[in-house]
Amino acid sequence: MVISENIRTLIWDWNGTLLDDIDLCVETINVLLSKRKLSSLNSDRYKEVFSFPVKDYYAEIGFNFDKEPFEIPAKEFIDKYNRDVKKCSLHCGATKVLRHFQKTGKQQIVLSAMEQSILVQTLTQHQITHFFDEISGLDNHYAHSKIDNGKALIKRIKLDPAEICLIGDTIHDFEVAEELGCRCILITNGHQSEKRLKETGCIILNDLADLLN
Hints:
This protein has 2 domains: about 10-20 and about 90-210, Rossmann fold; about 20-85. It starts with 8 loop residues before the first strand and ends in an 8-residue tail after the last strand. The strands form 2 sheets. A 6-stranded parallel beta sheet has the order 5-4-1-6-7-8, sandwiched between helices. Strands 2-3 form a two-stranded antiparallel sheet. β7 (about 185), α9 (about 195-200) and β8 (about 205) form a beta-alpha-beta unit. The protein is about 40% helix and about 15% strand. By secondary structure, the chain is an alpha/beta fold.
């Protein structure tokens, strides 16, 4: 099994890992780019440039923070994203995988860079909140980092990092796992390319179903 028996807790990323929101993110950022007469992105290019903190990603694709503060395009993005996120589906097999690990006794947690209230709302929409013991989002819309929340979570509920596996879709998820001292598995059908994810050296899987192999 990819998830060994000694792993007692799974920490799940949400956007791109369980929720298939890549097309929405590309569509939304292109609206902002077009408004500023900047070049649009296709999905492949998006997966090569998307990064955390997202302010750096915005700068790389052409936003000029000498002309406007980061908070302006960030709010535009979030406003459109939040209006349309209800159109997004879960990645294929997500519910099956969550149900499997719940039945096998794994504690499951969501650790997301999404703002907390919107995170709970989207999880509720997809009727999967009952799979999770904890749901942890950020207290703002700017998607800075999940590291502090992860550390606080481990301390509060007294988790052993040696018994945790974090499952995500970005290099930042790997960085979070490194900071938390836990294992990490990255899925390639999310927000960053397989090529970039392989640079981390951690386990890389093509989709969620591979977690059950």
